[in-house]
Amino acid sequence: MKRLTLLLILTILLSAYTPSIVAHGDDERLYIVVTLPVLADIVGNIAGDKAIVESLIEPGVNLAAYELTPKDSERIADSDLFLYVGYGNEAVLGTYAESIKNGEGVINILNLIKQDIKYPPQEKENPYFWMNPLNVKVLVNKMAALLSNIDPENSEQYMRNANDYLKQLDQLDSWIAERIRNIPEESRKLVTIRNTMAYYADRYGIKLIGFITGAAGTYEPQTKSVIDLFENIVEMDVGVLFVEYEESATTLREVIETLAEEAGVEVIGYLYIESLAPSHGVNTYIDLMRRNTEVIIKGLALNIGDKGSRNPGSGVFDNPVLRPFKYEFMRRGALTLLLVMAAAALVGSFAVLRGWAIFGDALSHGAIVGLVAAYLFSFDYFLGALLAGLVVALSVSSVERRTRLRTDVIIAVTFSTMLALAIAVLSYIGGATVSIEDILFADVTAVSTEMMTRTIISSLSIIVFAILFRRILLIYTVDPLGANALGMRTGVIHYVLLLLLAFTVVSSFMTIGAIPAFASLIIPPAASFLLSRRPGEFMVRSIVIALVSAISGIYISYYVGTNAGAAAILVSSSIFAGAVIYVSLFRGRGA
Q1: CA dihedral over 318, 266, 176, 48, signed as positive or negative
Q2: Which of 60, 94, 153, 415 has the lowest CB atom count within 10 Å?
Q3: Cis check: omega of the bond before 270, within 30 degrees of 0
Q4: Looking at residue 243, what DSSP letter applies?
Q5: Is the per-residue pLDDT at 305 higher than 60?
Q6: Domain topology for 28-175
Q7: pTM for the predicted model, two decimal places
Q8: Identical fold between 28-175 and 323-589
Q9: Do the Cβ atoms of 472 and 488 come closer than 8 Å?
Q10: CATH 3.40.50.2020 for the 184-302 domain, yes or no
Q11: Which CATH number is associated with domain 323-589?
Q12: In what order do the strands lie in the sheet with 81-84?
């Protein structure tokens, strides 16, 4: 048995350290690696059969979810030429390539062509130059010259390939211009979720009304920007909103659906920007531009007709005090945030007394695994997160009762394992459209009527249950041994409290994000604990602090321009800091 085990270990080690065969093997052609599929196609048309061109990111994989693997590192190291644009997560790949190749054969494409491309007004930081075919022509000429210098033996072939491709790009440009020309000028209004179409709009005479988030960055929930876009849509009488690639599992997508419903706008998509989509017939850059044009033509045609019902908001809300609640989606978000934070603070009161503060963090991390499972098997995200939360809760409790390990050690092992499992699965499947900003901080403007209804039911159920059984829960959390002496079934109470905590954390997690969910559970009760002397007073003040934090977060998010959940937590933290100062200065002196 020992020999078999040793043989197995040696086999694993040998397989791990055996060099893999690179894609080009002994091929003497140039080996070119690029970051994006659309760039691989463009460069491949110039290289022809004289070079091997590969994209690190496979078609259909979201750039934001891409995970670098050891195999990809090997491809970068072995490449004769590594090309990247330099934005968002893609910029990280360029920096990494610079490091492992000592800067040799690594080229930032934007730096290569920036002196010669045509920028839209006020858009010099926008990296999506290829959305204008004339800019691609500049890249083609630059790349043909670059490849000819690197491989002069095949220079003539590179130049011939480039000339042939330039003709195709001229034809593409003429075709797009002709198609757009059929749309009346007053109906050429483009609204997208990301600012990726600026080059396209400028080239073909389309007015870019607005967008929610920048082209190169990730979406950071910001109430003011969402409301501004909503008002632009209504004011400019736009009938359609375009979606760039599949954002179906993200908070940003939920924001779009909410805006569309309230503004009477139809959502049209998908536009493909940096990736190809073979399953939708988008195999090349030219396919991508043609498909996008057809989608845009269809959408712009809707601007000609009736825009449907609008929700411009009531004039009652025009004063500064009520302004953040002018629109229905903001009122839904505010109500949801208030209920979620109140329920979390109430249940968190028991967690603080019991010494389970870190347990909420474990549950929120565990819920991520549930989200990944729900994504993989296409079932309800809330149920997936809830089931994972329950597994964490029961696992921690079971191990705690059967071992001598301290609770904090078990929790640390559990939540780190669950988080590692989620990341391992995501990297194995090549990423997902669930991005980190959606997990950490959600957006109150994204709350749909269905989600609000679900939150009302779950939060009120939690509050009612906690109030009805507050005496039993208080006795158990303050003095478990005393509760047992009184004849209480402490084992049942223990698991009930765990389940209540899990249900609360997951309910909060799905609406305001992992960080606010955990913070809402701990910070308001912690501040209240410092200011209270009796249990009843402690619980009431926990809820009051949570409600004050929630409503303040809404106002801050609107007038300052930030995430409502994050702002609410900062208010809670400020109250906690104030409580610490008060206790230190006054109660410490016997006041």
Answers
A1: positive
A2: 153
A3: yes
A4: E
A5: no
A6: Rossmann fold (3.40.50)
A7: 0.73
A8: no
A9: yes
A10: no
A11: 1.10.3470.10
A12: 51-55, 30-34, 81-84, 106-108
